[in-house]
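ok trying this again, last paste got cut off
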Amino acid sequence: MRRLFHQRLTAHTPVEVIDRLGSNQNGRRTAGESQSNQPRAGDNQFCASLRRNPENSFSPALGGGDVKIPVEVESHALRPAQPLEKLFHLPRTGDSIDGVDAGSCGSGYVKIPIGAECEVIGGDTRLQGREYKNLPIALTKNLYEWSKIKETYNSNAIEGNTLTEGETALVVEKNITVPGRTINEHLEAINYAHAIDFIKKLASKKSRRAVTLDDILAIHHIILNKIDDEHAGSLRTVAVRILGSAVPRPNYLKVSILMDEFIEWLHSASEHPAKIAADAHLKLVFIHPFVDGNGRTARLLLNLLLLQEGYPLIIIENQRRPAYVNAIENALLHNTTTEYYAFIFQAIEKSLDDYLSAIKESRV
């Protein structure tokens, strides 16, 4: 299953990213490897096929905030000459597959084939089974609330909030104050959780091409509500320097223009949804449009764009903060994005794995 989603995430990524994620099991390019389109030792069938035919692609499962698992996945190794979209049949909302509307379950359901066990045969990952089963609403709600607490804790911790994950749950779910923690730390937890609820609702109403600057400002306003009302939901009008970063941020006089250009790009981008979300996060971090709350807003935008495409919330873990910060710094300072894409795609993959694990446990 991990390999299947790894393939799904790398379908539209640049060759150098595919090198990073697919050239060997450790996800690192070996010494001496080039970026040619020729198959090379260590390539899996997917990467070799993509290098031969980079125009071949397939779409991720989309629609209504649901997480959808392919109905049936044939082994690409059996027919490597066929276009990938014929080998990976991934339903979109509104598709009819064996008489089942891919969007018929509605929000709050995860669609998964009955008996869809991961089977590895000769290095190939296959999903067995063709019928659908709706997961109970209680389970999907639990998965969402679990992800919300973890994302709230980790995103705030990255910015220096000292609440533990357990304390974050108490504050958000029980409205209990934690001795020794500041008022702002409590508000950061409450606000971030509210912002996640906001983007979840927004994702069910709007597509990426309908997202506006006002939506991003609304996310930022929620984050800083009652913490910094003067700057909440407003573009910065002062210069900023980022402690520990060598990357200069744009002059505040250019921020408004850059954000308009950012929205235009967001509406016109046509690459893989996971790459668009990753790029949006990176671009917003660079523009740094706010006095405070830029990292949290960027991660929420990342999740908004993924939710719109049917992915679950992804969690960038605080324990991986050094790798996260270094990947962003290298991408912005040296224009080397391979490490950054690998980091984001691995986070997406892990969230998918977490959901699949929870689904499997619920069926025992």
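PB: full thing came through this time. The beta strands are 72-73, 88-89, 96-97, 100-101, 111-113, 118-121, 124-127, 132-134.
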